Amino acid sequence: MAQSDTLYRYIFEDYQVRAELVQLNETLQTILSQRDYPPAIRTILAELLAATSLLTATLKFEGDITVQLQGTGTLHYVAINGNNQQQMRGVARWDETSYQDSDVLSELVGDNARLVITIAPANGERYQGIVALAEEGVAASIENYFAQSEQLPTHLWLFFQDDKKSPCCAGLLIQQLPVKAHELSNDYQHIYELTRTATAQEIFTLPAEQMLYRLYHQEKVRLFDPQPVEFACTCSKERCQAALFSMHEDELLSICEEQGAIAMHCEFCGSEYRFDKNAITELFHGAANQPKTH
Q1: What is the disulfide pattern of this chain (predicted)?
Q2: Domains along the chain?
């Protein structure tokens, strides 16, 4: 990929349409390296990562976002956490004893699967939107979310190249800007027809500026400053201490007696935090025995 781990926002001077392009490499590679994910789950994680990056930029808020795929099949949970600074992390959970890889999404997630989007602004109330997981996949599900919540025409195209040494993913999004009913035109359909010609080979090999020129060379495109995307995990010793502090001290000391220490493992980044009997005693009776999260 010519330029990776970057989000680009752009608009069209002559049309009421906004758009985004994201190209990801190292962020995805870090997420996929945490576990030996089967091929189909790698694809879903990659698409969900690109979609979350695009979605976060579109919503224009300050705070955290979680996009989850929840199902009843052998693949029962996939999540990408991110924020307005484009710091991302992700994880998937599946039944390793009965899982069978499949390109058919419904065979993995089962019936009544859903996409859950949770937005937690730095200031303001938490919001959660839920839509049924579309048979067509992640992109169609996000499109349905926008149709249900913002009622603005929105389309996404998601791409994944599963190179084991350097996997990469990318995405394109276009969205109609709010206009009055009498101002609606064929502008959006025109941009849609141009954008849908994008290919995986182009988006993984061309720099963003060349990619946009290839798609829209006859249009006036205003490209805003690019925003870097990176992997970042919010786990910490302080967060673990806060979780332990909510439990009974005797119960924790009993676990330490049996196992030598309490080990807390982060699914997202692989970090492990260990607390022995002395650490538990200090947590409940030390000078600073009111843990704080950061």
Answers
A1: 233-235, 266-269
A2: 6-231 (3.55.30.10), 237-288 (3.90.1280.10)
